[in-house]
Structure prediction request, 261 residues.
Amino acid sequence: MFGWVLEVFFRRFLDPVDRKKKKWINPGFLTGPSLPIYGTGLIVLYLLAQIRIPQLEPDHPLAEKLIIFLIMALCMTLIEFLTGLVFITKMHLQLWDYSDRPGNIKGIICPAFSVIWYALAAFYYMILHPEVERSLDWLSRNLAFSFFIGAFYGIFVIDVVYSFQVVVKIKEMADEYGIVVKYNAYKSKLADIKNDYREKGKFFFATAISSISHKEIFANYREHFSVKRIVQPIQKVASKVADRVDSDSIKSKEEGREDIQ
Prediction:
């Protein structure tokens, strides 16, 4: 949830594209105020914070910390890359776009944000990690509080189920047009359409619409929030090759039958 807050303010005031639109956009694919990538990252950072480098102790404690921060940043970058890649290849959804930033890979990761991960890793290690350990110790002695954690995750699971239903509908439209949907740009365009139809905009349920269908939006406005799949031309070539092979195979069989006759 803390990562979600960071993303909301970053996109509103610091992102070079989103800040020009002067809109508050709910980041990620979930409806509620949470981004699972940050929760996963926190678990990874917690585990990595236990690392000790015996060769450097006790003469170089600063060097040890810098190396641990680097390992943390690389792991967070890897999580970001795998998450973005899975959503693009499997769901045809681009949750964020770094394609305009130097040194980016597939628009999913870039050096600038790896540096930000490094800074966040240092902040976690130096400031948050002791508090996380104290919180876990307190929780182990007050297990009744687990009820509230269970209630939170119950709501979270409902959010995941609902959000995936929305994502599946968008994927069907993306498949129909052979595109990858830039999800934040899609939600931004929905806000514009709602404004045109004088429909009340919603921050959390940004994809809930009543005046116009998703199919109409894709048919009329998809150039505003999509990119063509790079794999599309390859699929067409492969399909043509397969058809040619099949036709040649059928022809050779027919010729073989004629020879036998």
Summary: The two ends are 76 Å apart (CA to CA). The longest strand covers residues 179-182. The beta strands are 93-94, 179-182, 226-228. The first helix runs from residue 2 to 13.
